[in-house]
User: Which sequence fits this backbone?
């Protein structure tokens, strides 16, 4: 009896599985989204997953240009106010209409103390609904790049949030999980059908999606399975158990390309990898040079720069999946130019001479702090650098650690020499300059990732200025000037811009996004 | 007997306390979870606030006392990574691990015992030599290598070799996950669907291989020893058939120590499953633990380690009791010692 019942149950489950097979795209990556609450975690994979269910006011197309989403147009109407005209006739997937009240609610939610976006949009003072289809965002002072910031803030249904008691983002103080962690109600191309964190997430086409005409024929269903182990993830793609892998390991790309029925797409990622030098300290904490700081001398910094054979790192360590960098921000970021991005020549003889001129003909020793689970082949990059610096007499003691140890160490300013990567969610140079080049000032909330001790009043003035300057031509000039200053002062040694490679079955077509966030409403599957 | 049980229970409690304290000391080295929990734009003040909110600034002893107090009431806190209560997470993941461990243990017994008997009875034959060589590989090869190898052969490459040797495509197994699962109350089982059964084959075999070879070698050596015993010679002298001698007399006496070892090894299987679960993306407790380590998700790590040590302690407790029950000498000695002491 029991067996018969179980068999019947099994038959039902298997039956339903075969029906659901129509136009399903199965994809995988290393790590799952942390939560479906759109304002609880400001983290790449979480945002990418949530953006399939929730829409922002303005979204980014595959070239990362701003395109209308829930807002159809936007313009500044005062020095500190932006006006957004909302898209009419949009419905949430439960059928309720979307209005300006939902926008006001969502922005206030993203500004709440438990929100992880609070600092990201801290320049927003107030969000007002003028009429059901018009919203004004008031900032503290002029903010010419506010529209760029809106692309990360997703809009949630106010009525739904109130009904399920999730008007505030999840907090770690509560004992219970909030309803929004595994449920969602947005206006996006998909609805959340099943959410089993770390195991399986299923999304079904949203029947009320406003963009159905604009994006015809995207997959009916998305099935996401995180697969942590890189070899297993690649095996799943090769054996046809998934259709799309976001992050195949670089050493397996050649193998995937050779496999019939599979293909890869690649583009430059908006993330640059570089080395930071503590040039501000009176004496380096981790070095055998006492009483003075060799990194304070630009000749030493430049010698180290010119001793790094970036082409060797590119070819041997990164399997050619990087673009050598002269600037620590990537193509695609506003203010990046090819001329600025040129590297100093690799020249060991010149480097040795610079070291001798600076008074270190025999070099010195220093500790390099490096993450080993954050960027592509991060530890191997540091190993390569260690060998290259030995050529000019700098004995590097390499300390590679997990990111959970590396970043806190940096934040305590407990490093003389470190590897760091930086992505730019706003796609504007100001984001890089303010976090990495402005002098660290907790009160002004600038320079919070500047662990080099670099401080230049001119740089601070330019970075502050470009935040407020609304005249685009003047602003562009300030950005260019700031980058020239950054290159001349050289607190960082640029290494490369990461490339991203997406691997997929050739049944799948999807434009690649340089922010490494796939948007499956642009995809098709045969 | 009661005094024995009580003293054993006290010892177990002491072990648990020591283990959980050690775990807590170790957590000081896994790093700071706060960085993973806030966006990179967060200011130093906001990070400090978050650390304060989580109680991470308190000393290890204070954090440990708080953890013990909460754990005593069944509250392991909320995962930093998933923002869900840890007890729910563990209960959700437990069925996957226990099913994998149960199937692996069954496989280990079902293949280990017959092969052990076979190699003991036909010590010099070519197939015995082959099996013993294979068992050496099973003992020596690391679990993740076996797992990846199985995935390569039975998942990635099988489409090309299976038809060539006349096997249907059914010999291809999924390389990851649990397949379709069915909820029976809170227990989420994968053993009642075709895809679930297919999905468990490779991970269960990977996990069982080490235990299988252990059982095989244990049965073999025990069997060889028993076969030399006087009562076997006597049984043969009585003119019993080989079958009766081998399976009724010899095997029965071989199995007692084997069952004891397997009991203890189940704890080991649960611990070993961390690697197997990672390789096959098996959504069990081991994988939850690994992901938590990378995130420095202290509440989950603490609960997992405490739970695994609890399983070990419970198994050892019952094994001790079982010994006492099976071997009256042990019990009597202790009783006599006890009265002598009093």
Assistant:
């Amino acid at each position: 009896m029991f067996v018969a019942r179980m068999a019947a149950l099994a038959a039902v489950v298997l039956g339903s599985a075969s029906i659901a097979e129509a136009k399903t795209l199965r994809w995988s990556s290393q790590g799952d989204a942390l939560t479906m609450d759109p304002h609880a975690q400001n983290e790449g994979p979480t945002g990418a997953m949530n953006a399939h269910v929730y829409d922002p006011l303005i979204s980014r197309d595959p070239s990362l240009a701003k395109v209308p989403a829930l807002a159809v147009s936007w313009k500044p109407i005062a020095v500190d106010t932006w006006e957004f005209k909302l898209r009419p006739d949009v419905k949430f997937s439960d059928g309720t209409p979307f209005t300006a009240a939902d926008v006001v609610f969502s922005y206030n939610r993203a500004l709440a103390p438990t929100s992880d976006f609070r600092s990201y949009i801290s320049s927003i003072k107030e969000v007002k609904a003028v009429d059901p289809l018009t919203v004004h965002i008031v900032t503290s002072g002029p903010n010419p790049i506010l529209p760029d910031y809106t692309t990360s803030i997703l809009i949630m249904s106010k009525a739904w949030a109130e009904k399920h008691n999730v008007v505030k983002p999840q907090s770690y103080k509560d004992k219970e999980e909030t309803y929004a962690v595994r449920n969602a109600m947005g206006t996006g191309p998909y609805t959340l059908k099943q959410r089993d964190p770390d195991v399986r997430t299923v999304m079904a086409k949203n029947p009320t999606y406003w963009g159905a005409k604009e994006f015809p024929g995207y997959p009916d269903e998305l099935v996401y399975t995180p697969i942590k182990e890189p070899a297993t993830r690649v095996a799943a793609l090769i054996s046809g158990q998934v259709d799309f892998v976001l992050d195949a390991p670089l050493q397996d790309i050649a193998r995937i390309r050779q496999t019939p029925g599979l293909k890869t797409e690649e583009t430059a990622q908006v993330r640059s990898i570089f080395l930071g030098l503590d040039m501000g300290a009176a004496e380096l904490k981790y070095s055998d040079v006492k009483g003075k700081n060799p990194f304070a001398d630009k000749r030493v910094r430049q010698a180290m720069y010119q001793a790094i054979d970036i082409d060797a790192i590119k070819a041997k360590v990164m399997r050619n999946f990087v673009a050598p960098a002269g600037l620590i921000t990537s193509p695609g970021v506003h203010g990046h130019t090819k001329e600025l991005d040129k590297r100093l020549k690799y020249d060991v003889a010149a480097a040795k001479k610079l070291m001798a001129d600076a008074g270190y003909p025999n070099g010195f020793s220093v500790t390099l702090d490096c993450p080993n689970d954050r960027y592509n082949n991060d530890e191997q990059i540091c190993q390569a650098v260690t060998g290259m610096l030995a050529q000019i007499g700098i004995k590097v003691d390499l300390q590679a650690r997990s990111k959970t140890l590396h970043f806190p160490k940096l934040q305590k300013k407990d490093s003389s020499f470190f590897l760091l990567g930086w992505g730019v969610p706003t796609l504007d140079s100001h984001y890089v300059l303010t976090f990495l080049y402005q002098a660290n000032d907790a009160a002004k909330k600038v320079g919070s990732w500047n662990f080099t001790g670099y401080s230049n009043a001119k740089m601070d003035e330019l970075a502050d200025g470009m935040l407020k300057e609304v005249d685009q031509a003047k602003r562009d000039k300030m950005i260019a000037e700031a980058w020239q200053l950054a290159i001349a002062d050289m607190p960082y040694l640029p290494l490369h811009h990461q490339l991203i490679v997406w691997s997929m079955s050739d049944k799948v077509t999807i434009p690649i996004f340089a922010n490494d966030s796939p948007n499956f409403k642009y995809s098709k599957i045969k | 007997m009661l005094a024995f049980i009580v003293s054993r229970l006290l010892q177990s409690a002491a072990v648990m306390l020591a283990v959980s304290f050690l775990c807590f000391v170790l957590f000081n080295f896994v790093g700071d979870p706060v960085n993973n929990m806030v966006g990179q734009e967060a200011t130093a003040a906001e990070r400090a606030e978050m650390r304060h909110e989580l109680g991470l600034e308190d000393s290890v002893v204070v954090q440990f006392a708080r953890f013990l107090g909460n754990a005593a009431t069944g509250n392991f806190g909320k995962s930093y990574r998933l923002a869900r209560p840890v007890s729910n997470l563990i209960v959700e993941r437990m069925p996957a691990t226990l099913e994998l461990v149960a199937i692996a243990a069954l496989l280990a017994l079902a293949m280990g015992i017959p092969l052990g008997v076979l190699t003991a009875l036909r010590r010099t034959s070519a197939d015995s030599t082959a099996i013993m060589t294979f068992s050496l590989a099973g003992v020596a090869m690391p679990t993740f290598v076996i797992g990846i190898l199985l995935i390569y052969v039975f998942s990635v490459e099988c489409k090309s070799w299976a038809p060539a040797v006349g096997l249907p495509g059914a010999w291809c197994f999924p390389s990851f996950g649990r397949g379709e699962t069915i909820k029976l109350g809170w227990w989420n089982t994968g053993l009642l669907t075709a895809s679930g059964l297919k999905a468990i084959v490779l991970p269960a075999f990977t996990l069982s291989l080490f235990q299988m070879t252990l059982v095989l070698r244990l049965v073999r050596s025990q069997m060889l020893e028993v076969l030399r015993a006087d009562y076997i010679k006597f049984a043969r002298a009585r003119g019993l058939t080989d079958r009766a001698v081998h399976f009724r007399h010899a095997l029965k006496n071989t199995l007692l120590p084997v069952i004891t070892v397997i009991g203890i090894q189940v704890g080991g299987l649960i611990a070993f499953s961390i690697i197997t679960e990672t390789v096959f993306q098996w959504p069990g407790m081991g994988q939850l633990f690994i992901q938590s380590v990378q995130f420095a998700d202290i509440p989950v790590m603490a609960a997992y380690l405490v739970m695994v040590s609890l399983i070990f302690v419970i198994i050892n407790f019952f094994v001790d009791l079982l010994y006492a029950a099976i071997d009256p000498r042990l019990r009597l000695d202790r009783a006599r010692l006890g009265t002598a002491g009093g």
